[in-house]
């Protein structure tokens, strides 16, 4: 199983109530899942645990059969670098690097850089004419396409997208999600898309809702 969560519990030190109160989930390769839930329901928290950016208090978070919970920061970072790619609402591009350098950045860090794969992503995402520009010279939709290329360049097994189209207008959001879905489908990776939009969630084959700290 690509991703396996078992009875995951997470409480933040500052708060008394648990945000996640026993979350279990299996996701296979090639599966695409939309995750919805009200603001504050814990969607980002769950993605952070899956991406190894934070740890669960109890339960199992296993990526490709490796439980992240007992690992230290370096161990979790090593797993994330190779297997898990994250796309954020805010794009998080590096302002001092060109589009081309942004796209190659994470793949180089993970020693998984492949020029041919970059070229394919650049063409598929319509970024060729922008390669030598800097992020601030691009529109929001263009910046998010760069962020998608950067995340997919190392060919992750699991792609986590946290409101990736939240800053885009409806038409641009639709286009960006279509390209993301096509590209993920081509690589056979798994996808978890967090979204507030029922319209976008409906486009994915599997949907789960986070409420009261549990998935339904
Ligand atoms: N680092 C933190 N320290 C303390 N509390 C936190 C932290 N991060 C999140 N929380 C709290 O945990 C709860 C869940 O937050 P989270 O960001 O996971 O929700 P969300 O469903 O992603 O919300 P949104 O849709 O608004 O992005 C919220 O009550 C939030 O205030």
UniProtKB/TrEMBL annotation:
One GO cellular component assignment for this chain's record is: plasma membrane
* MF GO annotations: ATP binding; ATP hydrolysis activity; transmembrane transporter activity
Q: Show the InterPro entries listed in the entry.
A: AAA+_ATPase, ABC_transporter-like_ATP-bd, ABC_transporter-like_CS, ABC_transpr_LolD-like, MacB-like_ATP-bd, P-loop_NTPase
Keywords, sorted A to Z: ATP-binding, Nucleotide-binding, Transport
The record's Pfam families line, in alphabetical order, gives:
ABC_tran
Matches recorded under CDD domains:
ABC_MJ0796_LolCDE_FtsE (cd03255)
Please report the name of this protein according to its UniProt entry.
Putative ABC transport system ATP-binding protein
């Amino acid at each position: 199983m690509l991703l396996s969560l078992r009875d995951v519990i997470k409480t933040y030190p500052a708060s008394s109530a648990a945000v996640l109160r026993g979350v279990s989930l299996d996701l296979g390769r090639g599966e695409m899942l939309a995750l919805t839930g009200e603001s504050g329901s814990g969607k980002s928290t769950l993605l952070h645990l899956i991406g190894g950016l934070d740890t669960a208090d109890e339960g199992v978070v296993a990526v490709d059969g490796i439980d992240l919970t007992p690992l230290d920061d370096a161990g979790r970072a090593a797993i994330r670098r190779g297997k898990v790619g994250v796309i954020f609402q805010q794009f998080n591009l590096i302002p001092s690097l060109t589009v081309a350098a942004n796209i190659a950045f994470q793949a180089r860090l993970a020693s998984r850089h492949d020029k041919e794969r970059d070229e394919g992503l650049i063409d598929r995402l319509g970024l060729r004419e922008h390669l030598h520009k800097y992020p601030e010279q691009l529109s929001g939709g263009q910046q998010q396409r760069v962020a998608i290329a950067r995340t997919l360049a190392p060919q992750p097994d699991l792609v986590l997208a946290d409101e990736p189209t939240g800053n885009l207008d409806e038409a641009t959001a639709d286009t960006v999600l279509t390209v993301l879905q096509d590209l993920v489908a081509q690589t056979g990776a798994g996808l978890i898309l967090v979204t507030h939009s029922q319209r976008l969630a409906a486009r994915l084959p599997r949907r789960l809702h986070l409420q009261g700290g549990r998935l339904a």
